[in-house]
Amino acid sequence: MSMRTKRSVRAGQYAALLCYLVFLAFPFLWLVSTAFKPARELGSLHPTWIPQHPTLDNFRQAFDEQPLLRAAANSLGAALAAGLIAVLIATPMAYVMARHRGRLAKAATGWVVVSQAFPFVLLIIPLFLILKNLRLINTLGGLILVYVVWALPFALWMLVGYVRAVPAELEEAAAVDGAGRLRTLVSVTAPLLAPGIVATALFAFITAWNEFFFALVLLKTPEKQTLPVVLTHFLGAEGATDLGPLAAAAFLATLPSLVLFALIQRRITGGMLAGAVKN
Q1: For 212, phi and psi rounded to 5 degrees?
Q2: In this predicted model, what pLDDT tens digit does every residue of 91-107 receive, in sequence order?
């Protein structure tokens, strides 16, 4: 392949990447623009990218119309609990799956992959009945339980990659010194897994923070509803939308996910690639 052909191919790749980035960024940029536009500009027949008269009225109106702080607190509590519990359960399970590569570990890995193919609608009815029997309908505890179960497969997949990247020789050395399995996991492996554990917990947090469907079905009391559900209250009767406050509230709800993902995206990639490294 000639140098000129290589440059053309590379230019085409960069052009395709640029188009993809524009495609991904367009909704968020339009959301930010809408959040700062006054009502007059929102109803204009010739919308502009940049607000001509930026205003914070949409943010004030959003907080006046809906209990955003209470909903954010519900989402924060559910997301933090789900992330913490998912990591506490997934870490020892991932250790066993990574270190003991027998038929059971292979079956568990296959189940993790298959479970991700189940659609929400298929699960919601049996899930609702189970939570009803446990008296966890319309409770944040029931919602946290659902989030933990839903986050576990991907958390396991990530942590298995991190565990496999830890040299087994370190654990063998600890065993020679008299450390048991539990002591080795806590004192030797866990500190080395700290970056992966943090990344996995943050991923579970982001998943729970953004989740809408389960929260909509399982929570009925307004005081317990999460932020994604409360955002739908800006939609009025017959499809009428309070666009300005909705955009402002959605912008505020999106910020935590963007910030956290920016912090963990390299660690997520590292965890995915770690499992491909052969010790």
Answers
A1: -120, -45
A2: 888 888 887 776 776 77
**CA nearest neighbour of 143 among 69, 232, 202, 207:** 207
Please enumerate, as own/partner, the contacts of 53-61 that have beta carbons within 8 Å and a separation of 24 or more: 57/244, 58/244, 58/245, 58/247, 58/248, 59/35, 59/245, 59/248, 59/252, 61/242, 61/244, 61/245, 61/248
In angstroms, the CA 242 to CA 66 distance is: 12
Distance between CA atoms of 17 and 21, rounded to whole angstroms?
A: 6
Buried b (16+ CB within 10 A) or exposed e, 71-102: bbebbbebbbbbbebbbebbbbbbbbbbbeee
Residues 229, 231: Cα–Cα separation, whole Å? 5
How would you classify residue 26: left for phi > 0, otherwise alpha for psi between -120 and 50, otherwise beta? alpha
Q: Which two tokens stand for residue 63?
A: 């907080």
How confident is the model over 192-232, as pLDDT tens digits? 888 888 888 888 898 899 999 999 999 989 899 999 999 98
Rounded CA gap, 96 and 75, in Å?
32
